[in-house]
Amino acid sequence: MRRVVITGLGVFVSIGKDVETFFSNLMKAQSGVHRIKQFDPSALSVQIGAEIAEYNPADYFPPKRLDLLDRFTQFALLSAQEAMRSSGLEVKAEERPRFGVVLGSGMGGAQALDDGYLNLYARQATRLHPFTIPKIMHNAPVSQVCMEYGAQGPSFATATACSSSGHAIGEAYHLIKFGLADIMLAGGTDAPITYGMMRSWESVRVLASGNGDPRRACRPFSRDREGMVIGEGAATLVLEDLDHARRRGAKIYAEMSGFGMTSDAGHITQPTIDGPARAIRMALQEAGVNPEEVDYINAHGTGTRLNDATETSIVKEVFREHARRLCMSSTKSMHGHVMGATGAVELAATVLAIQRGAVPPTANFTEPDPECDLDIVPNEARSMRVRIALSNSFAFGGLNAVLLVRRFE
Amino acid sequence: MNVEEKVIEIITREQHLAPGAVKPDSTFAELGIDSLDGVNILFALEEEFKIDIPDNIAQNMKSVRQVTDSLTRVLEGKDISDLVAMAKGGAQAAGN
What we know:
- The structure holds 2 protein chains of 2 kinds.
- By secondary structure, chain A is of the alpha/beta class.
- Chain A is 33% helix and 18% strand.
- The N and C termini of chain B lie far apart (36 Å).
- Chain B has a single domain, classed as ACP-like (Non-ribosomal Peptide Synthetase Peptidyl Carrier Protein, Chain A, Orthogonal Bundle).
- The interface between A and B is small, with 9 and 8 residues.
């Protein structure tokens, strides 16, 4: 079986439009949440998001290209660009059929859909813009990234809500491991901060209001947590067959060595303990790792009452005594819940923790919750050697994806 | 502004081309206009002139001249059955 390594990283989110800014803000427990600027949110009960501020698409894309790119595809292209640059890859023509792209998105081209429906219903338009479909389709970012880099191998989109990019990265990892590809760009993207989407989320009643202090709105594992904060952005990783990476003298960030995926078959919004626990065990088993060897977990940690308490129980169920020794943090406290991108953003944070020997904190921690009584690295980043780490994604709909990465040795 | 000038203005705008790049006798191929671009241009023309261009006519527009002629006839409310007949059996514009 082939070994798979991570040789490139790209991140484009509220707390950083590149990996270095992203990591630096994680270390400073800096939140990217603010009052929404893309539209006037005054009518909403929740008026905040982890939005990418000071973003002008025309600074990044020529006008003709931009006509066909929804915001979520723009983010995907920008994170893929950084990932490719950081990898130093120059994919040769003969390698292209074994070079693919798998990206997750929970919401698709939400802005283009919103714009289209505004014209259709409110303005009584009798026809919609012909670019609506090529912009909203979930695979638009995949296809645009394929075209940009000439990736002609196995490529597709995953749509499993908050686990979308966990599944994308896991599937890409398996494609290389089982010999169907040599290089994969994998990750996820979402741009769900639209009026229609925020209204939809608002009514689920899982969002933190952040009244008065948006930056402190998302407080995972704190006793006074009040919900999640919607974020936007993308992250992309370059996964590569180890031999291929070695031949070209690539810089190796970490090794991908386990992927667990399960379905709760339970409830459309409430998580179970069994489903996610089996996903964690599956990832450990594939990597041949004992639970006691795990140093760090990047939690799903949405900041809702139910998620964080359930996730604590899941970790205790799988790790038993070791649950009290390992550390776990939720970086969603800073970059928000980036939906279909969140698994990739969090895996990027996890890989950087391994590579740089520093675990990002759970920001905005106030006081312990007896239901969340694990070491959640409150408020301050921690210098520590991380050899083996997990990134959890437990989606609405009960579809779970857990990725295991380890220091490359 | 006549129909031809308006057509040239819209094609120039939608394709983000330099002023003067689109000539009355330019073909779509010369201008790098693919099938999806063509659909976009038709949409812009329909919006601009508040008309409906039938699919079977739309699919046969491959040059600025064809667009201008078809549009002029649609606007004048002329019988366009001969254009429809010509378009029958023509290649599908939008592919899949």
